[in-house]
């Protein structure tokens, strides 16, 4: 199957930072252009206004007529924009041009009068910017407003706006490079724990499934925890397989050799009675070997299901009923009794594993206990119990202490795995296997936490 590839974390961070910088650049550039245009307009509007005021201040009245002596200071102000063309016009109260160009457009009538008026208009073939200043006279020989209009093209304004926007863009580009560099360094630093984790895994022996203990950031710690959990489950599966192979090699060699030797003796035996006894012993040992194999396979299956079977809500009353139905045809099975409460007793677990553990407890009670055998379910304070009771006194304290370990059978013909299976099932469900005397006999029970506890 082809390896699924996706973008690296560095590429994703670079893409995200680049997108932010591009979007920020567009916003900053638009803001810079707007600010630059406004700043340039305000700066050169002041020049226009200063020139117009100088011209208005130079108007005098002689012999009942307005005379305009164009001041040099007005043109010096306008010369601060040497690339721009200028146009001026002075009109009398009747609107007639006193001096200047007739082509200079007047301000809009609705905005004329009062203070200075700025407006846009053409200056030849180019767009221009104008200001109109009105000076009012009230003399005996001359009365009325004199309007001064001064305009210039927009080249200097546009150049200043571009300079402001270009400077802002240069600053943004430098800041973007710095942010990109810092983001790259931060990404490398943030990914270094993952590189350490990968190196630690690469250095490990394939059989080393112990937890990895490395300091990890909070965001990566769940990944390490999940990895350690997976290796723990894999280690339990490997250990179960190893134990199954070792147990099979150790436990099966002796009974198989004995059956083989007895079969050879039976084949060579001439006495019919002795041959019959040998065949009976072969049959008995075959049954014991079959039970041992069943228990070993059951244990392997239980360990496998511990990490693979999904946990679901299980009513222990159903588990007890299934155990009873599975064993009622065994020798002594008719002496079994069910003790079930009326309300459900729910745990979260694997029903098959719980049934298998209970069957082992009940089979032990049938084989080694004293009738009547009772299978039931009970509630404790924070736990529930799936129990099997018999009326016997149970094993002694010394024997009871070692029960539950693998191959720790103290009964003739026992495989020594039934209680080990029950203990492992209880532990995999967060509970314990309890063995001990009760008020009316001996009890073996799986003590399990309640669902949701």
From TrEMBL:
Residues 247-452 form the Histidine kinase domain. It holds the Pfam family HisKA. SMART domains: HATPase_c, HisKA. Residues 188-239 form the HAMP domain. The chain crosses the membrane at residues 13-36, 164-186. Its EC number is 2.7.13.3. It is found in: Membrane. Residues 91-114 are annotated as: Disordered. It is an enzyme of class 2 (transferase). Keywords: Kinase, Membrane, Phosphoprotein, Transferase, Transmembrane, Transmembrane helix, Two-component regulatory system. It catalyses: ATP + protein L-histidine = ADP + protein N-phospho-L-histidine. GO terms for molecular function: protein histidine kinase activity. Its main location: membrane. This is histidine kinase. It comes from Limimaricola variabilis.
């Amino acid at each position: 199957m082809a390896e699924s590839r996706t973008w690296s974390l560095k590429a994703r961070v670079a893409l995200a930072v680049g997108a932010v910088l591009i979007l920020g650049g567009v916003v900053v550039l638009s803001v810079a252009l707007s600010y630059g245009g406004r700043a340039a307009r305000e700066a050169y509007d002041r020049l226009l206004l200063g020139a117009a005021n100088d011209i208005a201040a130079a108007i005098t009245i002689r012999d009942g007529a307005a005379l305009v002596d164009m001041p040099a200071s007005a043109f010096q102000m306008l010369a601060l924009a040497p690339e721009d063309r200028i146009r001026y016009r002075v009109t009398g109260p009747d609107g007639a041009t006193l001096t200047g160009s007739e082509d200079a457009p007047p301000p809009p009538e609705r905005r004329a009068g009062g203070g200075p008026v700025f407006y846009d208009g053409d200056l030849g073939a180019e767009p221009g910017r104008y200001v109109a200043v009105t000076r009012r006279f009230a003399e005996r020989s001359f009365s009325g407003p004199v309007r001064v209009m001064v305009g210039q093209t927009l080249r200097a304004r546009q150049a200043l706006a571009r300079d402001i926007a270009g400077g802002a863009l240069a600053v943004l580009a430098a800041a973007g490079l710095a942010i990109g560099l810092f983001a790259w360094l931060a990404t490398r630093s943030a990914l270094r724990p993952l590189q350490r984790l990968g190196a630690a895994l690469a250095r490990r022996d394939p059989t080393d499934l112990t937890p990895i203990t490395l300091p990890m950031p909070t965001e990566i710690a769940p990944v390490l925890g999940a990895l350690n959990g997976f290796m723990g489950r894999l280690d339990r599966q490997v250990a179960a397989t190893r134990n199954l192979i070792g147990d099979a090699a150790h436990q099966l060699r002796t009974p198989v050799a004995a059956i083989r030797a007895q079969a050879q003796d039976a084949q060579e035996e001439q006495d019919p009675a002795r041959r019959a006894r040998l065949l009976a012993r072969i049959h008995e040992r075959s049954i014991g070997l079959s039970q041992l194999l069943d228990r070993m396979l059951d244990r392997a299956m239980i360990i496998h299901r511990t990490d693979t079977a999904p946990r679901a809500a299980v009513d222990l009353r159903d588990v007890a009923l299934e155990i009873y139905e599975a064993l009622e045809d065994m020798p002594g099975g008719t002496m079994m009794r069910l003790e079930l409460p009326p309300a459900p007793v729910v745990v979260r677990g694997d029903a098959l594993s719980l049934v298998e553990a209970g069957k082992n407890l009940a089979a032990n009670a049938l084989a080694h206990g004293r009738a009547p055998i009772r299978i039931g379910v009970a509630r404790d304070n924070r736990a529930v119990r799936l129990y099997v009771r018999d009326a016997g006194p149970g094993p002694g304290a010394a024997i009871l202490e070692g029960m539950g370990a693998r191959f720790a059978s103290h009964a003739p013909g026992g495989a020594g795995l039934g209680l080990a299976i029950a203990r492992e099932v209880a532990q995999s469900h967060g509970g314990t296997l309890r063995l001990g005397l009760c008020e009316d006999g001996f009890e073996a029970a799986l003590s399990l936490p309640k669902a949701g506890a």
